[in-house]
Q: What sequence folds into this?
């Protein structure tokens, strides 16, 4: 994985890993594959299990994403932000089985403390605030008001403050 190569190249033995949305999925998978490289894991924007209305949600996302691709201003914005590779995620996302629920259903193999932050507006993600602490002892959860899937950008001050407290507590141990 690129994260492991980067940490090795920088001679970083372990790091606090923070990921939001797709980055949260990457962080979760990395922490499972390379637990010795992770001091702590903070994730947000991750579904712990498939919501009952997954197919409906997925179909709405596919329609919305197709509309995005029709808007030249949006395409240019994301091209400038991410390069042209971002489109591959739109195409991958058309498959209703793209989401790695087999990886997000548990925290098996993760040795480090976990902080799971979600916005109150995303009911599918808030389910993990109940599930994850039942699966692993050192899991902390935070449901942030007035936010949804992109809690880190919708409530950046609250998100950053909670993250700061979490990392400082992990460092004290």
A:
């Amino acid at each position: 994985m690129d994260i492991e190569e980067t940490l090795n190249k920088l001679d970083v033995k372990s790091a606090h890993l923070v990921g939001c949305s797709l980055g949260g999925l990457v962080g979760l998978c990395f922490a499972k594959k390379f637990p010795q490289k992770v001091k702590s894991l903070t994730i947000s924007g991750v579904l712990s299990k498939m919501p009952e209305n997954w197919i409906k949600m997925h179909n709405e996302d596919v329609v919305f994403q197709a509309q995005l691709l029709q808007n030249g201003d949006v395409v240019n914005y994301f091209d400038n932000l991410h390069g042209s590779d971002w489109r591959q995620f739109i195409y991958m996302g058309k498959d209703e089985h793209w989401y790695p629920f087999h990886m997000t259903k548990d925290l098996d193999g993760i040795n480090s403390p976990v902080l799971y932050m979600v916005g109150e507006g995303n009911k599918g993600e808030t389910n993990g605030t109940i599930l994850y602490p039942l699966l692993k002892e050192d899991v902390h959860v935070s449901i942030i008001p007035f936010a949804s899937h992109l809690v880190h950008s919708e409530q950046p001050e609250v998100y950053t403050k909670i993250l700061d407290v979490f990392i400082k507590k992990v460092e004290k141990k």
About this structure: The CA atoms of residues 8 and 14 lie 9 Å apart. The longest strand covers residues 38-44. Residues 54-92 form one domain. The longest helix spans residues 54-70.
